[in-house]
Amino acid sequence: MTVFAPTDDSVVVVIGSGAGGGVLANELAQAGVDVVCLEAGGRLSFGDIVNDERVMDERMTWRDQRIGEGLLNPHFPAWMCKTVGGTTMHWTATSVRLAAHEFRAKTTYAMENSSAIDWPLTLEELEPFYAQAETKMGVSGTNGLPPLPMNNNMKLLAAGARLLGYKHVTSTGVAINSAPYDGRPQCQQIGFCKSGCVIGAKWSTLYTEIPKAEATGHFELRANSMALQIEHDDAGRVSAVVYADKDGAIQRQHARAVCVAGNAIETARLLLNSNSAMFPDGLANGDGQVGKNYLKHVVVGALGFMPGAVHSYRGAQQGGHIADEQRNDTRRGFAGGYQIESAAFSPLSVARIAFGGKWGPELTDAMEDYTRIAATFITGEDVSQSGNGIRLHPELKDQHGLPVPVVHYEDHENAGPMRAHASNSARALFESLGARRVVPFKVNMATHNLGACRMSADPKDGVCNRWGRAHEIDNLFISDGSQFSSSGSVNPTLTIVALAIRQAGHIREAMSAGAL
Amino acid sequence: MAKIVRRDFMLTGTALAGLAALAGCSGEGQATQNNSEDFDALAALIVVLFPHKDINQSVYEEVAELARAQLSVREGWVRLRQEGRAALNAAAGAPWESLEMGARVKATEVISKTRFFETVYQAALFEFYSHPAVWALVGYPGSSAEQGGYLHRGFDDIDWLAEAEAAP
């Protein structure tokens, strides 16, 4: 096992081991760049992954104190993972490319009361990296992999979609093995994707990128290591990362460059907590952009109470989607688009999320129809607002003595009409197949945490450039979904992976050119 | 479809009472008798919250115990419980447990916006719909990996879609 000295300032320190950090670290290690990866969470083995939502939530969830404001839960504003592999353990593996227009949020949507910008790169530029990401992850419908076989719930969505005249209905675009791939087995339609895949058929960095990186001899994973502060030298270049190790002892790893991939909230928080005399408002925050323009998705869930059994818990929890509503068509009454995705909910999730707050026969009658429930989860474009964001609490400190993050989120005026349209689409779809009842529900908790350190052409509009490189600090990189200039409508992981692959190439080139 | 679901007691009655007393005491020295009453009231409240006809009373008692274990370690729970009980009795105009079901529901509605209700509801909901007997009632089998998932056990066996698609 490779071990680097804390004083070794030739290493690149990557903070986070999920879709952004895990991929970036492996890509660098494969190219012979020495990497130390700091991961706040512990490392699970396959034996630790079980079909038990509650147990796995305990093992994987980020539970450190956070404050939610606006529409967010005041005690638990966002759901993310603290474990090696990050949210690639919990994700449902939908892997769809952003559409061309979704890279041009400002130009396309021309929204009022919005801080939207266009991405400083185009779909065309990202396409080769999307292709590499799909190869890496084994996305169904690419690289000779067939579409994922549709389970009952997705077959139902597909049937309803046909009746509504939707054309883009597919179980391609899922990073779950539809056939054995990359040494990992074919999906056995177990369900419980969100609790970590028991057999590793779903792509996660825990058992792909991380061991591959370790095999290079250029990579050291330090699990249970919470990054506390990024330090810089007199020239204003980052030079080391201070972190708490598994015993809570404070350590310092020197670095040639630092790449932050802590999942929006922690990424912004770390930069803000790294303030100094030279950077009094935090690193890369000279224009006050760190923590601003936090995005999630506009999310609607819907349950259809169908005339026959669905058993939607069987199989992949999100094994396909309908893309017809991804287009931008303001005749629908809102800007941007949304994805209609297959979903599955355990009884506890149905009761807590779809029927939250209900009790008595209103709840129990619905629960006794559990096997006839069909489900969809709809994610739509979130319009940037500078007031949505992450800041530090003025008094509250965490177990390491650092200010806890405050996450503020309000709906943009575009969200209401989009949500109403999406709910109506779900209703029409389920009713076309004879649903007796449709229950749409709003989900405010974020699992897609984006923006907050966005990339921008103009340094005044964001934190990093088109490579994720901080505008202000040459050897500091943003390497996760924090980079997103806008949310798009699709699940973000594939784009995060594509950006990480692209960023790794940029870092290697900069190193070769002596510019890093 | 519906059938009575039975499940062995996880704890004997004696052990339940002992645990309940422990949970209730948590530093504030409640009498055991009161704790038993509180425990019975919690189980009865959970019946009001989740009135499935075919769930055995013993399941409600198990859920009450699990919820109580969760609640008893929270700061301020003993006080909140006392306030909640008082509010329930006030809404009922009599000891809440002395009422029949319909009146219990009405009194519960009166307090349904209180912090006591919300706290008990969340804890009870979490435990109730995680309980194997409740899963069996609603038709959720839980863990599937040890049976090889559903690839060969009906993940795509839906058989009524063609008919539904053809319907006018």
Describe the structure.
- The complex is a heterodimer of chains A (about 525) and B (about 170).
- In chain A, about 25% of the residues lie in helices and about 20% in strands.
- Chain A has helices spanning about 20-30, 55-60, 105-110, 125-135, 150-165, 210-215, 265-275, 345-355, 360-365, 415-430, 495-510, and strands at about 10-15, 35-40, 65-70, 170, 220, 225-230, 240-245, 250-255, 255-260, 295, 300-305, 320, 340, 375-380, 390-395, 405-410, 435-440, 450, 475-480.
- Chain A starts with 11 loop residues before the first strand and ends with a helix.
- By secondary structure, chain B is mostly helical.
- Chain B has one domain.
- Chain B has helices at about 15-25, 30-50, 55-70, 75-90, 100-110, 115-130, 130-140, 160-165.
In short:
The complex is a heterodimer of chains A (516) and B (168). Chain A is α/β, with parallel strands linked by helices and 516 residues long. Helices cover 23% and strands 18% of the residues of chain A.
What is the average per-residue confidence, as pLDDT of chain B, rounded to a whole number? 83
Q: Tell me the greatest interface.
A: A-B, 47 and 42 residues
CATH class of chain A reads Alpha Beta
- What is Rg of chain A? 22 Å
Rounded Rg of chain B: 20 Å
Can you tell me the CATH superfamily of chain A?
Answer: FAD/NAD(P)-binding domain
Count the strands of chain A?
19
Main sheet characteristics of chain A: 6 strands, antiparallel
Largest sheet of chain B: none
Low-confidence segments of chain B, given as residue ranges, are 1-33
In whole angstroms, how far apart are the ends of chain B?
29 Å
Structure class of chain A: alpha/beta
Q: Please give the share of residues in helix of chain B.
A: 55-70%
Features:
heterodimer; A: 516 residues; alpha/beta; FAD/NAD(P)-binding domain; six-stranded antiparallel beta sheet; five-stranded parallel beta sheet; 11 helices; 19 strands; B: 168 residues; mainly alpha; 8 helices; elongated; disordered N terminus
